[in-house]
Write a structure and sequence with these properties.
This protein is mainly beta. It is 12% helix and 46% strand. The protein contains 2 helices and 29 strands. Strands 1, 6, 7, 8, 9 and 10 form a 6-stranded mixed beta sheet that branches. A 4-stranded antiparallel beta sheet has the order 2-3-4-5, with no helix packed on it. Strands 11-12-13-14 form a 4-stranded antiparallel beta sheet, with no helix packed on it. Strand 28 and strand 29 form a beta hairpin. It is globular. It starts with a helix and ends with a strand. The N terminus is likely disordered.
Length: 385
């Protein structure tokens, strides 16, 4: 019994000693660390600033040493799906992009100075400035050299201005959005404008046709303009005259000055129109959902369809005339970019390019012989024609 009591006594003594040792070790470490830290601080020189390490010149206190600084806002990245591009009279370029496969549809507008090469257009670092949009974009055009109008997937249209500000030696460019005008109840499906005054015409999936003034004030609205989905709108060179196309298989010409403004100039259920453009003042080129190109005489003298042939394999989605209107660029739901001539009611194919790898959506001319195309493959291609 005495032997067992002695064993328990030594166990308690050993436990107390270990606990005391641990206590001293735990509470003595911070003081040693602090002492070591103080010694290091006393013996090491302070680190140089990051700008000095990077090789930047020291900042002078004199205002005369300041140089011009360009500080333009540019979105972090360009969405994959390129929807449109357009040049102004100075040669500057705008590109519209949408994100169609992410959780939220979004878009952006990018502004490039004259002389940008095709490989740099999808590089945000080469952009003068840009702006993020809360929705995808359908189409966009220059109204003036520093003013653009955009058609949005939200059913609205918005004016965007290129603004330049200078504060001393600092020059800043940015794109300033005005408040969007939303007069459609569904997505926008077509946008065009009258070049004579900048008035805008839009159509949407809500079967509505809207006419806006150059300041985007609503001037006319027609609903329903067609019985089904309206796929395209094209403004004539004459004021107040335009045409619309619908999936119901009709093309209508409108004169907004008349009490009964619309009349049907084309009808086909087997070749429903998907895209239209004017060829002169009396003829319309119709692209169908089956890849046909049809030339329609709007005067209706018994020969409405002057030409009809299936030139492409899929639905025609975009037209764009060259500046001298001698050649017409065509895009479809495919990788192809076509170039045709329309003369005396006949269509002749000049070229078909297949360098894109996804649907082509944007077409624009920077000169009479230089065509640019953009597509959902996130690629811009220059065509010397």
């Amino acid at each position: 019994k005495s032997k067992n009591c002695l064993i328990h006594f030594y166990k308690r003594l050993l436990t107390s000693s270990v606990q005391c040792t641990v206590y001293q070790a735990v509470y003595s470490v911070p003081s040693r660390i602090l002492k070591m830290s103080a010694e290091v601080k006393a013996g090491v020189a302070p680190s140089p600033p990051y700008a000095e390490v990077a090789g930047a010149s020291p900042i002078s206190d004199s205002e005369g040493s300041l140089t011009a600084v360009h500080s333009n806002y540019v979105p972090a990245q360009m969405e994959k799906h390129l929807e449109f591009l357009d040049f102004n009279s100075s040669g500057d370029l705008i590109v519209g992009a949408s994100s169609l496969t992410t959780r939220y549809w979004s878009g952006s507008l990018w502004y490039y100075r004259k002389g940008v090469v095709e490989e740099d257009i999808t590089n945000p670092e080469m952009c003068l400035t840009g702006v993020d949009l809360e929705t995808g974009v359908l189409d966009g055009r220059f109204v003036q050299d520093k003013q653009m109008v955009l058609g949005l997937d939200s059913g609205g249209v918005v004016m965007v201005n290129l603004t330049r500000e200078q504060d001393g030696d600092r020059v800043t460019h940015y794109l300033e959005q005005q408040t969007a005008v939303v007069e459609h109840e569904d997505i926008l499906t077509g946008l065009d404008l009258w070049e004579v005054d900048g008035s805008v015409a839009t159509v949407g999936a809500d079967q509505r046709l809207n006419i806006f003034s150059p300041s985007l004030a609503l001037v006319h609205t027609f609903h329903p303009a067609h019985a089904r989905f309206i796929s395209s709108v094209a403004c004539s060179s004459k004021p107040h005259i335009l045409a619309t196309a619908s999936r119901e298989g009709t093309v209508r010409v409108w004169d907004t000055r008349q009490t009964r403004p619309a009349r049907t100039v084309y009808r086909s259920e087997t070749r429903p129109p998907s895209c239209i453009t004017w060829s002169g003042e009396q003829e319309i080129v119709v692209g169908s959902s089956t890849g046909d190109l049809i030339v329609v005489d709007t005067r209706g003298k018994g020969k409405e369809n002057l030409f009809q042939d299936q030139i492409f394999d899929r639905e025609v989605t975009r037209f764009r005339w060259s500046p001298d209107r001698s050649r017409l660029a065509v895009a479809e739901d495919d990788v192809k970019v076509g170039l045709v001539r329309v003369k005396e009611g006949q269509v002749v194919v000049d070229m078909v390019d297949t360098r894109h790898t996804d649907y082509v959506r944007g077409l624009a001319w920077s000169g009479e012989d230089t065509l640019w195309s953009a597509g959902w493959d996130h690629k811009v291609v220059r065509h010397e024609v």
